[in-house]
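INFO batch 0412 | record 1 of 1 | parsing
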Amino acid sequence: MSVASAVPGRRMSRVVVTSGSGKLGRAVVEHLATHGYDVVNVDTAPPPPGQPALFTRVDLTDLGQVTEAFTGIDDRYDGVDAVVHLAAVPAPGLRPSGATFANNVVATHHVFSAARRAGITNVVWASSETVLGLPFETPPPYVPVDEKYAVRPESTYSLGKAVEEEMARHFTRWDPELKLIGLRFSNVMDVADYAAFPGFADDPRSRMWNLWGYIDARDGALAVRFALESDLRGFEAFIIASPDTVLERPSAELVAEYFPDVPVKRPIEGRETLLSIDKARRLLGYDPQHTWRDEV
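INFO prediction complete | emitting tokens
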């Protein structure tokens, strides 16, 4: 699949990644660079040594800085074809709720607005699994959960992500050529994190807050590339998770024990994820390649 560039006659090649120094961002930068993209990391944190990307420190809560980052930065580059927006306070409780909301929603507004001003029609950004109703103290309407039911934010962090998705609907209504794809990433994991996974069996309840889900950072990066290269237009949201759960127990058994009153929408096979990736498989061609079981 291919996508027309923001610059007529030029194939998409230069991609700005916000928070390219972060956990998922590092994987995305490496993956895109490996697949031939010119990558620009804009972040407030420095990049890891040897990262295959240009780097500029940018405050995303300043619309002027974001606009400049998307149009060209002196001595760095001119013109941008696409944006991957991953920057955010990444979870509830890391900062006071008001500060989290003010940072995340404002930054995402500025990314959408600056992209539109710069003529960039291809934006992929990190929404969150939290909009599905995490930590599921109120049980989900059914399992596996998917994108078909209305968002259910249960924290200020999640409320911000829900607001971002609603903003995306209106930005794409204003500009029908704009593509804004929100990837509802599950709990992002590096290979080093998998050493802890066998211990989850001692207390399965400790991971029921997101239906025992996770996403390998490498597969998260794969989903980003497939979203960038898709021919979709408008706003779309996709759950992005690994194909399995963090436990060895069958997923249907977990549902029966911990969510006995929740309807099961379709047969659940083996240890498959309860965060449905069916839509991402169907519309993006997403095919996750990694599981923690290969690393432990």
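INFO post-check: Residues 1-10 have pLDDT under 50 and may be disordered.
INFO record closed
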